[in-house]
Amino acid sequence: MSQTFHEFVVHRSPALSRTAYLLTGDHQLAEDLLQSALARTYRHWRRIRDGDPEAYVRRVMYHQQVSWWRRRRFTERLEADPAPAQAGHPDPSDAAALRVTLAAALRQLTPRQRAVLVLRFYEDLTEAQVAAVLGCSVGTVKRHGHDALVRLRAVAPELVDPVPERSAR
Amino acid sequence: MTTRLRDVLHTTAAQAPAYQVEQRALATARRTRRRRATAVAAALVLVVLGGLVLPAARTSPVDPAGRDEPGALPDRIGLPPVGSLHATDRPRTGPASVIFTGEAGRLTYDDECSLVTVVDGDTDAYRVVRSGWEMTAGTDVVLSPRGRWIAHDPQRGDPRVDIIDLVTGATRQLRSGVAGTVGTEPAAWSPDGMSLVVRDSVPIHLDRSDHRRQLNLIRLDDGSSVRLAEAPSGTVPGVVVAFAPGGDRLAWQTGRVVTVAHIDGSVIASFPLAPGTELAGKGAWTPDGRWLTVARRDDARWTLRRIEPATGADGGALGTAGVDDVVGLQLLGWTATGVPWVVSYLPHPPEAATYTRPFPNDDRPVYGNIGSVEVLSLPPDGQPPTLLLTAPQEVVSLDIAAEVIRAGRTRAADPPGGVGGRFWIWTALIVFAVGGIAAYRSRKQLALWWENRQLRR
C-alpha cells in the first residue's frame, strides 16, 4: 500500500536532512533545500509515491543545489586559487573541530564538486551512478571528484588521508 | 586516501538534526500550484480575449468592395485544392469575383452536397462553402453584386438562407417567415445588395409528398418581405430572376411565363415566352432598362434577342453573335460599355445530341448534360464571341459578381495547386495530438530529461 506524504516525511526526514546539510554546509540553507525538494515532491506525489520517493527527493536536492548556486554564483564565486590551509586550524583529532573544518572546506567547493563528494563518499555510489543522478557523463564526475579532492587537500589536508611519501633512495 | 573523508562526512552528517520542514514544504507546494493555476487561467483569459478582440481589430469595417476597384475576372479557374480553407476561415479573401460548383470530386462532399468554390476578386486565393444540397451557382447559391456576400441554403431540415460575409467571415441567418416552409433557397440579389429574392417550399400534404412554391423578396435591413409569386405543385417560380438596373423592377420566369413586377410585388406584366426562348439570366435587363433579353435556341445555336418588358413582344436580335454547340446560355450581366457577358454550358459528352432537347421546367439548363462552362463576351456588332474564362471538366455552374462584369476587367489567373490551408491545419493538429500522446506516455523520461537539462544550464 502506498505510504502517505506525511509518513514519508516523518520516516525519511533525518536521512534527507543529513544529506542536505552535507550538500550545503549550512543548517539554514539545508532546511531551505530540503523544504524546496519536499515541496516539489509533494506536487508530484501521486506519480512517484509508488516508486522510490526518497531517490526522487535526493535527486531534486542535488539538482536544486546546483541550480541555486548558478543563480547566486556571483555571490559565491570561488576565488581563483584555493585559500591556503590556515595555520590556526583546530586539532584534527578533535571530532567537533573536524566538523567545523569540513564545513569550511565544503564551502570552498562548487556545488557540483560538493555533490560528487557527497554522492561518492557519503552515499557510496559508483561514478556511473553519480553520473546518472547528476545527469552528466562519467568523465565529468571524475573531473569534479578529482578537482574536489585537490581543493580539499589544499584547504584542509587533514580531511584527506595523507599521500604516502616516497622514501629517498 | 578517502577513508578519513568518508568518516568525517558520516560523522558530520550524523550531527545534523532532522529539519522540521513538512508544513512549510506543503505550503510552498500549494502556493506554487495556486500560482500556476492563476497563470494558466490568465493565459486562457488572454487567449479568449484575443480571440474576441482580434477579429474586430483586424477586420476592416469598410467593404473592401467599397475599394473603388472591383475585382477582375480570372481567365481560368481550377478545382479547389484538397483541404481548402472555408470562406469563414482566416485569412479572409474579401469580395469574390466568381463562385462555381460542379460534379468533380473536389467540388462535392457526402456524395451529393456541393462545395461552392469562391474565387477572390483580385488574387487566385480560393475558399469553399459547404452547402447542404447539390447547388448550382447563380440559381440557388448566388453572389451579391459587389461580390461581398454569398447566399446559400446551408442545411437540410432548417429552412433558412445563410449569408456569408466574405470580408468579416460573419454568417447571417435569414428566414423568410413563410408559414410552414420546409425549405428556403436564395434566387437573386437586388442591384444594391439590400434585398434578396428567395424561393420557399411549403408542403401541401402532411407527408410532404407535394409542395407549393413561393417567391418572396426580403429586405435585409428590416427583414420585411414581399410575396412575389406562388406556383402550384411541380412548377418553380423564379427559376430565373432578373432585376432591372435601377432595382425598382424585376422579372422572373415560371414555367413558360415571364412576370414583370415592381419590387413591392405589384405586377406590371405577365406574358408567355415564345417557343424555344428562355429569360436570358440574371442580366436579362438591358443596361438602359428598356428591354428584357431572352436566349433563343435554334437547334444547337443560341442567340440573344430583345423583348418588350410590358408585353413580351419580340424586339429583334440583340446583334450579338450566336453561340454554337452548347447546352445553354445564361446572360450574367453587362459591361459599362454595353457588352453582355454570358456563361455558356458545354455539353457532356461533347458529341451528345440530347442537349438540344427542351429544358424541363425547373432546370435551366439541364445540368446533367453539362461537361464544363465557359464565360464569353458577345460584342454587340456581331463579332465572334470572346472567350474570357475557361473551367475544368465537371464544373457545371458559375456566377460572377455584377460589379466585376460591369468593370469589364479580366486577369491572367494561376489557380492554386497542392493542398489547402485546412489540410495543413489538420496535419499540424494530428502531429500535435500524436506528439502529445507520445509525450504523455513517456512523461517520466521527459521529466528526467528536463531536470537534467536544467541542471546542465
Would you mind describing this structure in some detail?
- The complex is a heterodimer of chains A (169) and B (457).
- Helix content of chain A is 68%, strand content 0%.
- Chain A has 169 residues and is mainly α.
- Chain A folds into two domains: 1-77, Rna Polymerase Sigma Factor, Chain: A (Orthogonal Bundle), CATH 1.10.1740; 88-159, Winged helix-like DNA-binding domain superfamily/Winged helix DNA-binding domain (Arc Repressor Mutant, subunit A, Orthogonal Bundle).
- The termini of chain A are far apart.
- Chain B is α+β, with helices and mostly antiparallel strands and 457 residues long.
- In chain B, strands 2, 3, 4, 5 and 27 form a five-stranded antiparallel β-sheet that branches.
- Helices cover 20% and strands 34% of the residues of chain B.
- Mean pLDDT of chain B is 87; it is low at 55-67.
- Classes of the chains: A mainly alpha (169), B alpha+beta (457).
- At the A-B interface, helix 1, helix 2, helix 4, helix 5 and helix 6 of A face helix 1, helix 2 and helix 5 of B.
- Chain A: One of its GO terms (molecular function) is sigma factor activity.
- Chain A: This is DNA-directed RNA polymerase sigma-70 factor.
- Chain A: Keywords: DNA-binding, DNA-directed RNA polymerase, Sigma factor, Transcription, Transcription regulation.
- Chain A: Residues 11-73, 105-154 form the RNA polymerase sigma-70 region domain.
